[in-house]
Fold this sequence. Notes:
The structure is a single chain. The chain is an alpha+beta fold. It has a single domain (5-83), classed as 2-Layer Sandwich (Metal Transport, Frataxin, Chain A). The protein has four helices and three strands, in the order H-H-E-E-E-H-H. The model has no long low-confidence stretch (mean pLDDT 91).
Amino acid sequence: MAFSPNVWNQLKNLTADDLIRALQHDGWEKDPSSKGATLAFIKHEGSGRRRIVIHYHPRKTYGAKLLQSLLADIGWMDNDLRRLKLIK
């Protein structure tokens, strides 16, 4: 998934706290079995579920490759990022 340079400039300062807040707003629930700096989130979709693991470090941003991989695993597109107010 490739984002436009305008979108990417807004995403590069995304912190772990921002990402977790957006996940929860989008219906992802924290997996109660996750502990420490590795937080798992689950989203039930139809008869199945999806799971993503976020490495949590307060107020830290992600590197470009890790952030791109996380967003691809979550499946958010430009319109989702706008809806969640991660970009303008």
